[in-house]
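Lab meeting prep.
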Amino acid sequence: MWPAIISPPIPRPDCPRLKAPIVLAHGLFGFRRIGLGPLTLAWYFRGIPGILQAAGNRVLVTRVHPTAGVVRRAKRLGEQILEAFPDEPVHLIGHSMGGLDARQLIADPAWEGRILSLTTIATPHLGSGIADFAKLRVGRIYTLLEKLGIEHRGFLDVTPGAAAEFNRRTPLPDWLPVFSVAGAPPHEEVCWPLRRLHAALEELEGPNDGLVSVKSATAFGQPLPDWPVDHLRQMNWLSPEVPTTPCPRVARLYAEVVENLWHVDEDWQHRGERESA
């Protein structure tokens, strides 16, 4: 079982405490933790679990195959949720491809009632032109990886063509509150690894976070206000403001996501109280 508490509490902005647990799902190339024994070198959601835990929330950071396709990743995501919280529903927050994994999971009718809400952050619901470009440039590498038996389906699942088919298979569920967040930073605030990609995607798809356009990120569920941070800084990486501690701006953005879920959580609690009365 993955532990629900995975990092020490840290100072936080105002953030509500939800009764139901929060599950964080990572994106392509993602991980839960990189470390050597007890030494932690990096977290995917850098400092974010501690921010939410400091408000009293229970948080599970899941770990799925970093480059596998959505179907395989969703299966593992569901297994970890059931291992950690077998008897209660959860709020699910997916970053990037993690949002697609979550959509694949909730497409299974067996999960109705086990997920209270889904919030996707910078998820390529319409795919990303960057993935198409990568496919054209390194398609031979994908063929080689396939021959070597190395999983690489995840790269293909975020292309626009694959996204169109995925959207036909996994429509918006009528039983679940679903929200979406896009990243839309000004170009001068995009971190250096993503600046060229941000400019290229701007020409192809308009405002974006360096990897996923606003149009693609908000194509599924109820859009929430755009985040003024790029795809990497959404995970609290490469912060120009506070390089060694969680960035206050990013902390506040995640707190706002939880604030948006407070009414969903309250409705669930009240339903439970009525049913037990």
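Slide two material, second protein:
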Amino acid sequence: MRSAITRRRMLSAMAGGAAALGGVAPAAALSPNPVREARIARLIGEAAHLPAVAQRVAFISHALIGSPYRAYTLIGGPHRPERFVVRDDVFDCVTFLETVLAAARAHDASQFEAQLRLIRYRGGDVEWLARNHYFADWCTNNIANKVCRPLLLPGNTTADKRLTAERGLPPRRVTMSALPFGALFDNRMLLSTGDIIGFLSRRPGLDYFHSGFVVVDDAGHLWLRHAARSRGRVLDQPLLRFLRDNPARAVTLLRVREPTPGHVLI
């Protein structure tokens, strides 16, 4: 998720969205060129008639199927200034979630960047230490800011882990919501398209190894819509097949909340 941006990108100071929502000065952003930038604006407009945020998540995420996978697109580090990167042409698993959620929550294109800052950074502050480096932090902070809420199904428990994987951050312990796979499928009727799923990692020092959106088809079957490194693109994949190919301890589930009308984002 972290690397220098390609030569096709250009530096632009983004105005509008954040400034219009609470008077906060917009952060300088590394943005797609105007042709690519129009893609997310078009999708926001096309999804605007859908009344529920989950419906907009489903529509926008589906429209991005086939987009290339690329890791390490965010810029910043312990000794390198953080830059606000806005891309809708390539994704890793987390930037795919963030881009879709920001677009689904935005009333129009001018709000997209403010929403993305709110989702990616604690308090919307574009700082390396405020970025949600661990998905455990991503979940905690996006519950606190009311973007999501925990989805606790029967059989849900917790898992504790000591995190050491992110260089530059001190080791610390976290407690994560953990739903065993059996309980996940036993309660599949309680899931909805657009729910967020994170897969707990068996690797020492790491909380989650992957994330994506749940899709429930008309027959009630569960799919994972995600940016997959192994497939090199965004795609839909049967959830059971993914779990068979990628052993994990359990999953964490979140449900997207409806944006509060008139809420100042940052």
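Talking points for slide two:
Residues 148-256 form a domain with the putative xylanase like fold fold (CATH 2.30.260.10).
The chain is about 30% helix and 25% strand.
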